């Protein structure tokens, strides 16, 4: 086994030391719960009768007698999300596989699953970030009946997987496997989609052309094929050992996809406390697994959203990580994937080039991943250098490729696309933020230009339509953090700023808000913490202040005399008169309680 890289080892030890008390407390609670509440043991006859009432008579007897283990399914099925529509058929596949393996399965509960692609630029987007915490609570409610020996989590997209992880970790004594649905087949290229969006932003094409382009890009069941948060989720679940090996990027509706779903049911029954191979989720999500997740995010140029979500997921297991950990790991992790927005390919090209098995093989060989971890397959991440296949109708795992099928999409550690990772910590007198540097060409990584301060993304779009942005500038967008308005993704900004950059202007963005998980080619310093609503100094910026954004150096600075800077009040932006409408008011409690973006926008603080 290759020795772990010195920097990765040092960060791991730092995280372990920082988390010692909180991790011990979490594991202590989890073990006490496992001892005090084994499945069904505390339930009376009336409780059990309610739980088994709709079952067939034979199944009722098997559960009541204790003869069969029971799987609780938490599903995020709805048929509006392309990525989640395939889950409609999964419970029956799982029930059938469980019964053949000597167990049973029930849908324990459903969780909401909203689509940022639909709500971006609309009021619903202000509920998106905290839908994660609602999903976590809904997962806990689904498992609260205490009739399950194990759990399967059905979820794919942006907030859904992090919410499921946080919720599942509250039942850390249960073996849990995450069951993906896979990406849709490739449509038009991401570059073509982005080109038409920019043409529309410039008024060069109409809405009909834009809609036609979008429908050719998002055209069928499965995740969107760019490397945004949904596909970063699937990569994370695999490298953290919560998927079956090779499960992430198999298309929905295929025999291999259905075979993997059935295999998840069989495997989770094998690792319950009833057998000899007990693997609860609390044993999987530890410090090394979290560090492995960060490494893989850096190596693939993963979603900026995980500088929030992975922090929250780790916190749920008693593990404390910071953006300094991301930054230190990024400095020694080579960029091995070129998937849009970091390149022209989509996740199907990545999967065909060698996908997760080759990525993990490369990172393990370089000592950048911890191999000595527990996964749903047992001990060791090496099992994830294999990939699934069907032979005579039976699911088997075989060694994945040792060589990339397309070096322009998936590179080696010896010949990476970049010697460092996809994300970078940004520091300066406006706070701490992050940038997805892998998506920004070197020529655009340094911008020095006057600030134009905006309160909303709509205001920036309106200024563009009025012809006021035909110049060099850094847009400073305030009051977009979790406490201000739920931190919606600022999707409307990308086509406008991208078009201006293509016209030759030096442009950038600095905000306490959030961009898409597919944050693109314009230099964007996002998640500025603390946010304006918590007194963040980004609120001291005024129109005309010279801003220097240097992504290579990791700095973003307002060039203002210190005495002048200190004397300025923090301006909090313009309140939305309709902020409590369309369901947004129901999230006020979560927003008021939440911590900073760097702390995972965690709303469960005591």
Can you describe this structure?
The chain is α/β, with parallel strands linked by helices. The protein has 2 domains: 6-185 and 220-399, no CATH class; 424-576, IlvD/EDD C-terminal domain-like (Glucose Oxidase, domain 1), CATH 3.50.30.80. The chain has helices spanning 6-18, 20-36, 45-52, 57-64, 90-100, 116-119, 128-143, 160-169, 190-201, 207-217, 229-239, 255-270, 281-284, 287-300, 306-316, 323-332, 347-353, 355-365, 457-465, 482-485, 493-502, 562-567, 588-593, and strands at residues 70-75, 104-110, 150-154, 176-179, 374-375, 378-379, 386-391, 394-399, 424-428, 431-435, 446-454, 473-477, 507-511, 524-529, 546-550, 555-558. The strands form 4 sheets. The protein has an 8-stranded mixed beta sheet. A 4-stranded parallel beta sheet has the order 2-1-3-4, sandwiched between helices. Strand 3 (150-154), helix 8 and strand 4 (176-179) form a beta-alpha-beta unit. The two termini are 42 Å apart. The model has no long low-confidence stretch (mean pLDDT 93). It comes from Acidisoma silvae. [4Fe-4S] cluster binds at residues 157, 224. Pfam families: ILV_EDD_C (PF24877), ILVD_EDD_N (PF00920). Residues 409-601 form the Dihydroxy-acid/6-phosphogluconate dehydratase C-terminal domain.
């Amino acid at each position: 086994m290759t020795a772990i890289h010195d920097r990765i080892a040092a960060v791991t030890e730092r995280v372990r030391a920082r988390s010692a008390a909180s991790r011990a407390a979490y594991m202590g609670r989890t073990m006490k719960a496992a001892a005090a509440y084994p499945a069904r043991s505390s339930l009376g006859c009336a409780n059990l009768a309610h739980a088994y009432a709709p079952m067939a008579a034979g199944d009722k007897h098997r559960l009541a007698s204790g003869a069969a283990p029971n799987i609780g399914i938490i599903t995020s099925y709805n048929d509006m999300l392309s990525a989640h529509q395939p889950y409609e058929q999964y419970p029956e596949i799982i029930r059938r596989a469980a019964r053949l393996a000597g167990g049973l399965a029930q849908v324990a509960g459903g969780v909401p699953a909203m689509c940022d692609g639909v709500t971006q630029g609309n009021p619903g987007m202000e509920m998106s970030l905290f839908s994660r915490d609602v999903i976590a609570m809904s997962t806990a409610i689904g498992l609260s009946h205490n009739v399950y020996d194990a759990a399967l989590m059905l979820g794919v997209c942006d907030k859904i997987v992090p919410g499921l992880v946080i919720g599942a970790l509250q039942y850390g004594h249960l073996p849990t496997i995450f069951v993906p649905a896979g990406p849709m087949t490739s449509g038009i290229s991401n570059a073509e989609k982005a080109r038409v969006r920019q043409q529309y932003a410039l008024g060069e094409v109409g809405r009909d052309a834009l809609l036609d382009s979008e429908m050719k890009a998002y055209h069928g069941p499965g995740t969107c094929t760019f490397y945004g948060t949904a596909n970063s989720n699937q990569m994370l679940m695999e490298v953290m050992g919560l998927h079956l090996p090779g499960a992430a990027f198999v298309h929905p509706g295929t025999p291999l996809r259905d075979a993997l779903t059935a295999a998840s049911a069989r495997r989770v029954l094998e690792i319950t406390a009833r057998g000899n191979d007990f693997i609860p989720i609390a044993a999987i999500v530890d410090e090394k697994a979290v560090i492995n997740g960060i490494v893989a995010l850096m190596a693939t140029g993963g979603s900026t959203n995980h500088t929030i979500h992975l922090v929250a997921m780790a916190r749920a297991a008693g593990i404390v990580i910071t953006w300094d950990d991301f930054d230190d790991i990024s400095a020694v992790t080579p960029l091995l994937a070129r998937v849009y927005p970091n390149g022209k390919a989509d996740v199907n090209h990545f999967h065909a080039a060698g996908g997760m098995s080759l990525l993990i093989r490369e990172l393990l060989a370089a000592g950048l991943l911890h191999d000595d971890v527990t996964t749903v397959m047992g001990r060791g991440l090496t099992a994830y250098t294999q990939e699934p296949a069907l032979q005579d109708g039976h699911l088997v795992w075989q060694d994945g490729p040792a060589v990339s099928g397309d070096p322009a999409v998936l590179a080696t550690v010896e010949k990476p696309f970049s010697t460092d990772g996809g994300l970078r910590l940004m520091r300066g007198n406006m706070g701490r933020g992050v940038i997805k540097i892998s998506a920004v060409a070197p020529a655009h990584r340094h911008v020095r230009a006057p600030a134009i301060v905006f309160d909303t993304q709509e205001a920036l779009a309106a200024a563009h339509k009025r012809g006021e942005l035909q110049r060099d500038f850094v847009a400073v967008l305030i009051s977009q953090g979790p406490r201000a308005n739920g931190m919606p993704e600022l999707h409307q900004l990308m086509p406008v700023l991208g078009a201006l950059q293509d016209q030759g202007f030096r442009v950038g963005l600095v905000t306490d808000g959030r961009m898409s998980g597919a944050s693109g080619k314009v230099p964007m310093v996002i998640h500025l913490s603390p946010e304006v609503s918590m007194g963040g100094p980004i609120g001291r910026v005024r129109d005309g202040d010279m801003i220097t954004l240097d992504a290579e150096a990791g700095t973003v600075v307002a060039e203002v005399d210190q005495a002048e800077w200190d004397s300025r009040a923090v301006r909090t932006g313009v309140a939305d008169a309709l902020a409590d409408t369309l369901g947004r008011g129901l999230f006020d409690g979560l927003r008021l309680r939440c911590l900073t973006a760097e702390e995972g926008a965690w709303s469960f603080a005591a």
